[in-house]
């Protein structure tokens, strides 16, 4: 049970209060971007390339323009006149808004059709005739650096091949030495495939430029509205659109998971067209466009090695990554982190040394590099370390749970410096794994497995004990386009004791309207129901970097607590004045200050706030509001211990997840119901890449599964009944001791599932399989091994 | 253009529509009832689910003209003067929604499911909603919400919706 400091009526931290936002969603009154309808609004549809790599010989829009209702067709050449045909990416690369001569991936935007209705815009799109001269695309990143590979980015000065960047971290010399001297070395090549976040709402916008006011209102599916406003100002400043004239509104968002962080060409075209026509422009992409052209996630080819002793002491790891970025590096990472936070890859284990390196290359695939519900490439790292740990255990003949226990960083060793430079804040890995093992009855399962094996049945048990790194981030290291990754909260309490609080983040389903209200309730004793939360309007909310990478609670949540504490200090002064005592004589309990030893002499927070407007102490500023921009001193390091049990049919190789127990440690919990909901959802997005999802391209660059018919998002049938629990190790540096949780399960689940499947198949001598692991892949592998 | 007459949430409607207009666009754009959502272009996600004469249907896969003479229920028609429909209450109580985008379609699908099978097993619920995708919740709590609504409709005591931890 979680101990609560506040009453249920106040509903502070630890209470599973029901969500405030639900009322509108269950009654069809949400306000998503496609629900926005403005007078005179025009609709935009986008002509896309059927080829992965081709020269554009000509674009003939005449037939389209003959269709009644088609207002305009916009091409790269049109945007070129305003120098808007290219835009910068977050990683200092460049991306086409619309091409002037070459297309670089299948489904790339080629032209935009503007019309008076959705249907007519689609008619217009069908009528635009583009003459292409196809070229042979470069699809295999392993061939990107071959001497005969086409130079994909001749537009970039100094670019003589398809290499984008090299990155490394750790002590190479010490690591190589540890490997040279090790008793046991295991290696594995792993591919973490390209996948797509596929939030059920696709991306879109309504760009509404008011010529008279020279003012743009941009309704947009964005996880980071403030950053977007600054980006628009930087890109469009030269045509007179400056930051005070831009208002970005991020309405209700139907799931984000990282896919709504980037700026897509469609947004920019819509703004440009609205700017030129003065009409509001709505652009809503189809699911197929979303899957085929919006930012991908993952796509890392990893060679991972582990060195250690025969009796199971892990000594070193080495990682070598080839990152396929498509035709531009449009990753959504903090500026200084080209591989995101991949360097968390030493995991939950205490060993001396590690070395990691990565090289990124161009190919003719769509750009991206977003999270898929993960903190900047943590999932790739965790998959590699958790898989290689199992491979190591197998090699030396030790139970994988035992190997983990023997190598965990100990509870008392925190804060702990990792060989790649992190300072882990806190953790109790042993407690988590014990709890998970007790919940599944691990010993019994191993006994059952031994029996099943005698009967020729395939059963596997897989463990993953991961450490996440979230809450980006401290301003000394973390920025996006130079803007430091703080986040903010502003709390205003009205005379009657009811409040509104505004934030620089933006919920996409995480439940901020409830959890932020609970933080304010916890700190000020004002019932959570009396705290209105607002986010996503850049005209009203304080500046912040948005919601992704599980950063909202670590940053904006902390800002709320600190802002509320500033108000509590003010409340204390007012209470002392009203009760005619000195501040030192007062004591706080949630909701009121009272005189020590005389609990009857008290002032409630509501009385105090009223006085702030009606009877404030002489010399004190009237009103009751506070703002805080929180710059975290460190990241937070949530962790988890997951155990998966699978049964595999030994003829069809159908995989059934019999049980999955997830013990998460996200520090102090604001709302257990919401945390559990986040874990459930994240686990389903963990089984998805482990068993179902992968974006597949053929050699010509055609995407083979670019719709929901064949890109397999798990339904309620594929998704098992998740069993969840927690341990609580508060973050020592976070004001409320919370760590963030939204992504842990997506990060931790895939290796638990893969480890379970490989464990089941180990009877055939299988030591590794790349995800997604499907019955067909198992059949194929066993066939190749000559086992069936 | 075709003249069609139909009912939405009990209210008579008349519309003049192109043959190719999809029912989902008729509802969302012509009638400005935006609770019905669109999540795909291949009839795969179920975000657009409505009830047509009580049967759940994907409104992105039906032409508006096919609605002629039909009685349509959308999410806006679930609550009555007496309050929320049991399925709405179940979704809120059991925390069966996060971003809320799949929720209207998911609830309408569940309404028909419970009508046909008032006391479904977990497995029947999971198969029953397998035409509707949710990317946020992991489905555990959607199952719970439907069980809650089922109990409520049957007049039985509703199951606890407190989160259970191992
Ligand atoms: S919108 Fe996806 S099934 Fe109708
Ligand atoms: S609640 Fe977001 S898709 Fe279901």
Would you mind describing this structure in some detail?
The complex is a heterodimer of chains A (about 800) and B (about 170). The two termini of chain A are about 50 Å apart. With about 800 residues, chain A is of the alpha+beta class. Among the domains of chain A are: about 20-30 and about 485-630, Aldehyde oxidase/xanthine dehydrogenase, molybdopterin binding domain (Aldehyde Oxidoreductase, domain 4), CATH 3.30.365; about 420-470 and about 635-788, 2-Layer Sandwich (Aldehyde Oxidoreductase, domain 4). Helices cover about 30% and strands about 25% of the residues of chain A. In chain A, a hairpin with a 5-residue loop joins β19 and β20. The radius of gyration of chain A is 28 Å and the shape is globular. In chain A, α13 runs parallel beside α14, α14 (about 550-580) packs across α15 (about 605-615) and α16 packs across α17 (about 745-760). With about 170 residues, chain B is of the alpha+beta class. Chain B folds into two domains: about 1-75, Ubiquitin-like (UB roll), CATH 3.10.20.30; about 85-155, Orthogonal Bundle (DNA polymerase, domain 1), CATH 1.10.150.120. Chain B contains five helices and five strands. Chain B has helices spanning about 25-30, 85-95, 105-115, 120-130, 140-155; strands at about 1-10, 10-15, 50, 55-60, 70-75. Chain B has a five-stranded mixed sheet with strand order 2-1-5-3-4, with helices on both faces. The longest helix of chain B has 15 residues, at about 140-155. Chain B starts with a strand and ends in a 12-residue tail after the last helix. At the A-B interface, α1, α16 and β33 of A face α1, α2, α3, α4 and α5 of B.
């Amino acid at each position: 049970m979680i101990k609560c400091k506040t009453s249920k009526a106040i509903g502070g931290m630890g209470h599973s209060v029901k969500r405030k936002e639900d009322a509108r969603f269950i009654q069809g009154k949400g306000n998503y971007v496609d629900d926005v309808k403005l007078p005179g609004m025009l609709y935009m549809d986008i002509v896309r390339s059927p080829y992965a790599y081709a020269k554009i010989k000509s674009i003939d829009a005449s037939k389209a323009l003959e269709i009644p209702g088609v207002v305009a067709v916009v091409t790269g050449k049109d945007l070129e006149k305003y120098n808007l045909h290219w835009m910068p990416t977050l990683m200092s690369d460049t991306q086409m808004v619309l091409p002037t001569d070459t297309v670089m991936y299948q489904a790339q935007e080629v032209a935009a059709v503007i019309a008076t209705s959705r249907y007519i815009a689609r008619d217009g799109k069908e009528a635009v005739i583009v003459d292409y001269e196809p070229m042979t695309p470069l699809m295999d990143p392993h061939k990107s650096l071959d001497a005969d590979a086409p130079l994909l980015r001749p537009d970039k000065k100094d670019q003589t091949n398809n290499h984008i960047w090299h990155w490394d971290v750790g002590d190479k010399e010490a690591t190589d030495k540890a490997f040279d001297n090790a008793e046991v070395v295991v290696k594995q090549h792993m591919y973490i495939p390209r996948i797509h976040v596929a939030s059920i709402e696709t991306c879109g916008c309504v760009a509404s430029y008011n010529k008279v006011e020279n003012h743009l209102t941009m309704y947009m599916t964005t996880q980071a509205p403030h950053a977007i406003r600054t980006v628009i100002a930087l890109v469009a400043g030269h045509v007179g659109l400056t930051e005070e004239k831009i208002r970005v509104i991020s309405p209700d968002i139907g799931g984000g998971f990282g896919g709504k962080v980037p700026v897509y060409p469609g947004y920019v075209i819509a703004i440009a067209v609205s700017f030129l026509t003065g009409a509001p422009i709505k652009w809503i992409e189809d699911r197929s466009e979303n899957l085929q052209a919006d930012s991908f996630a993952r796509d890392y080819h990893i060679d991972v090695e582990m060195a250690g002793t025969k009796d199971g002491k892990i000594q070193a790891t080495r990682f070598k990554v080839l990152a396929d970025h498509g035709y531009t590096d449009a990753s959504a990472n903090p500026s200084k982190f080209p591989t995101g936070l991949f360097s968390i890859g030493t995991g939950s284990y205490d060993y001396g040394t590690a070395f990691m390196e990565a090289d990124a290359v161009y190919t003719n695939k769509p750009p991206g590099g977003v999270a898929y519900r993960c903190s900047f490439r943590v999932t790739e790292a965790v998959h590699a370390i958790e898989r290689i740990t199992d491979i190591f255990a197998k090699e030396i003949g030790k139970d994988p749970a035992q190997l983990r226990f023997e190598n965990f960083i100990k509870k008392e060793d925190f804060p702990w410096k990792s060989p790649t430079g992190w300072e882990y804040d806190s953790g109790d890995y042993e407690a988590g794994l014990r709890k998970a093992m007790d919940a599944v009855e691990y010993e019994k399962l191993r006994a059952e497995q031994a029996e099943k094996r005698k009967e020729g049945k395939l059963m596997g048990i897989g463990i993953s004990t991961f450490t996440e790194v979230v809450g980006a981030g401290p301003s000394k290291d973390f920025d996006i386009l130079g803007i430091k990754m703080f986040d903010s909260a502003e709390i205003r309490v009205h005379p009657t004791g009811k409040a509104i609080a505004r934030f620089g983040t933006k919920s996409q389903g995480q439940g901020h309207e409830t959890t932020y209200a609970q933080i304010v309730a916890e700190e000020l004793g004002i019932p959570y129901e009396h705290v209105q939360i607002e986010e996503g309007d850049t005209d009203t909310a304080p500046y912040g970097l948005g919601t992704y990478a599980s950063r909202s609670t670590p940053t904006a949540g902390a800002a709320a607590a600190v802002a509320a504490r500033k108000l509590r200090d003010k409340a204390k002064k007012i209470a002392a004045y009203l009760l005619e005592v000195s501040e030192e004589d007062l004591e706080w309990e949630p909701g009121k200050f009272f005189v020590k030893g005389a609990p009857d002499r008290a002032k409630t927070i509501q009385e105090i706030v009223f006085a702030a407007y009606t009877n404030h102490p002489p010399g004190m500023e009237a009103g009751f509001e506070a703002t805080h921009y929180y710059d975290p001193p460190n990241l937070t390091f949530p962790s988890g211990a997951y155990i998966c049990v699978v049964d595999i049919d030994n003829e069809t190789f159908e995989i059934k997840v019999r049980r999955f127990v997830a013990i998460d440690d996200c520090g102090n919990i604001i709302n257990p119901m919401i945390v559990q909901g986040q874990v459930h959802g994240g686990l389903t997005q963990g089984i998805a890449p482990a068993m179902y999802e992968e974006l597949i391209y053929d050699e010509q660059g055609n995407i083979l599964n670019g719709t929901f018919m064949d890109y397999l998002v798990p339904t309620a049938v594929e998704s098992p009944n998740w069993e969840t629990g927690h341990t609580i190790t508060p973050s020592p540096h976070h004001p409320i001791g919370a760590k963030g949780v939204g992504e842990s399960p997506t990060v931790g689940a895939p290796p638990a599932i893969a480890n379970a499947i490989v464990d089941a198949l180990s009877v055939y001598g299988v030591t590794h399989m790349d995800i997604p692991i499907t019955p067909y892949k198992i059949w194929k592998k066993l066939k190749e091994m000559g086992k069936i | 253009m075709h003249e069609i007459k139909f009912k939405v949430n009990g209210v008579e409607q008349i519309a003049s529509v192109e043959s190719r207009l999809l029912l989902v666009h008729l509802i969302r754009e012509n009638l400005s009832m935006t609770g019905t959502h669109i999540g795909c272009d291949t009839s795969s996600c179920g975000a657009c689910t409505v009830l047509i004469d009580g049967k759940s249907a994907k409104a992105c896969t039906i032409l508006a003209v096919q609605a002629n003479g039909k009685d349509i229920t959308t999410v806006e028609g679930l609550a009555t003067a007496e309050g929320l429909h049991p399925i709405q209450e179940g979704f809120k109580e059991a925390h069966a929604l996060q971003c809320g985008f799949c929720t209207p379609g998911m609830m309408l699908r569940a309404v028909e499911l419970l009508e046909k099978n008032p006391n479904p097993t977990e497995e029947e619920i999971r198969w029953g909603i397998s035409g509707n995708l949710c990317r946020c919740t992991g489905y555990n709590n959607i199952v719970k919400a439907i069980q809650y609504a089922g109990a409520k409709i049957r007049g039985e005591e509703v199951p606890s919706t407190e989160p259970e931890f191992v």
